[in-house]
Write a structure and sequence with these properties.
It is a single chain. The chain is α+β, with helices and mostly antiparallel strands. It folds into 2 domains: 250 residues, Aminopeptidase; 127 residues, Alpha-Beta Plaits. Helix content is 33%, strand content 23%. Helix 1 crosses helix 3 and helix 6 runs antiparallel to helix 7.
Length: 390
């Protein structure tokens, strides 16, 4: 059996793997597999289609009864263009803070979970503790989808509850906004600008859609629906990228832009998407095709993260509240994979070490006291799952 490591020691190891989303995470996952093997715990890798990335699933305790899954993502955002005062892929400790890319978001939680493996393996667990570590969360929670499918379709008994360890300063979160990322490609008809009326200006038609989206955004801000637990208390829409045009004397034949919708749980984002598509296809596109039938709009939705809400009276929320000592659960505006677990009937709470305010920034850090809080939280969870709760 391998010697036990503290959560900080394991975090140091994890930070050493550059798992930026566009890179492979296999070396990190093999590290976790080897670590678990040292305590007699088998795990399974669920690889991406190209084999370059993987989710990891493991079960500690009796696998034939419902238990709890600890969910965390292994990928991190890029450090390119950021001004760091230390090597982002070497853990640096200073003034009771641990610096490095992913310390807060969210290798700190994974490190705490792994540090508790010896205690989990030795405990008389009456319900199992699952690990579900995923990839590509930072690009839209796309990697975890195959892990979700695996839990739903391939294991004997799926978990009854889930804790997503995103940074919440160890406060239980029982609701968050969703995240829908849409791309729009506009095909126009190119011509010399002196003959502009004979062309179809893709840039201008794209700008029409952006203007329409802006009107919807303003309407929602004024009319709702509203949920005062969120900041801001309504669904938000943002256009973030717009590309078109090559020269002033050429009518552009192509325009592309990207926008996102972050809906509150009370809002169905599909209604917003349908309204935008109807304006494009029924109002604008006939004008374009009257000049050139090959012109038009194409929408794709590469990211669809559902909004999440779990009732405060649910068992998992009550477990998190009791362990943390919080009086009530909280809501946040950032998105996680929690809604995807809820979609397969696994009630979920988001609760993990670190502050979201430190995520994605240069000199990302997590406070050592947050690691200690997470260690203690998981220790209490192990004690709870070692009792007969029936």
């Amino acid at each position: 059996m391998k010697r036990t490591k503290t959560s900080t020691e394991i975090l140091s190891d994890l930070i050493g793997f550059d798992t930026t989303s566009h890179k492979s995470n296999l070396d990190l996952m093999h590290y976790i597999q080897d670590y678990l093997d040292g305590f007699g715990i088998k795990s399974r890798l669920i690889k991406s289609e190209d084999g370059e990335k993987a989710n990891l699933h493991a079960v500690i305790g009796p696998a034939d009864v419902p238990g709890i899954i600890l969910s965390g993502h292994s990928d991190v955002v890029p450090v390119d263009g950021q001004d760091w005062n230390s090597d982002p892929f070497t853990l640096t400790e200073k003034n009771e803070m641990l610096f490095g890319r992913g310390t807060c978001d969210m290798k700190g939680f994974i490190a705490c979970a792994l540090a508790k493996v010896p205690e989990m393996a030795a405990a008389p667990l009456v319900r199992p503790i699952h690990f579900g570590f995923s990839y590509d969360e930072e690009v839209g929670c796309t990697g975890v989808e195959s892990l979700i499918d695996f839990l739903r379709d391939e294991i004997e008994v799926k978990p009854a509850m889930c804790i997503v360890g995103e940074p919440t300063s160890m406060r239980p979160i029982n609701a968050h906004k969703g995240g829908h990322h849409l791309n729009c490609r506009v095909t126009g008809h190119e011509c010399h600008s002196s003959l502009a009326p004979t062309g179809v200006n893709a840039l201008e038609y794209a700008a029409n859609i952006v203007s329409f989206v802006t009107k919807i955004k303003k309407r929602i801000a004024e009319q709702g629906p509203f949920n005062s637990d969120f900041v801001p208390p309504y669904t938000t829409i943002n256009t973030g990228i717009f590309n078109s045009g090559t020269a002033m004397n050429i009518v552009p034949n192509l325009a592309e832009f990207e926008f996102e919708i972050r809906p509150i749980p009370e809002e169905n984002p599909q209604h917003i998407i349908d309204e935008i598509r109807e304006y494009a296809f029924k109002i604008l596109e006939p004008q374009m095709k009257a000049i050139d039938p090959k012109t038009g709009f194409e929408f794709t939705e590469p990211v669809k993260i559902p909004a999440f809400h779990c009732g405060e009276d649910s068992e998992i929320v009550q477990v998190a509240l009791n362990i943390t000592g919080e009086n009530t659960a909280h809501k946040v505006s950032f998105a996680t994979e929690a809604g995807l677990f809820q979609n397969i009937d696994i009630p979920t709470v988001v609760c993990g070490p670190g502050s979201i305010e430190q995520a994605h920034k240069p000199d990302e850090f997590i406070k050592t006291e947050q690691m200690i809080k997470c260690d203690n939280f998981l220790g209490s969870l192990i004690g709870l799952y070692s009792q007969d709760l029936t």
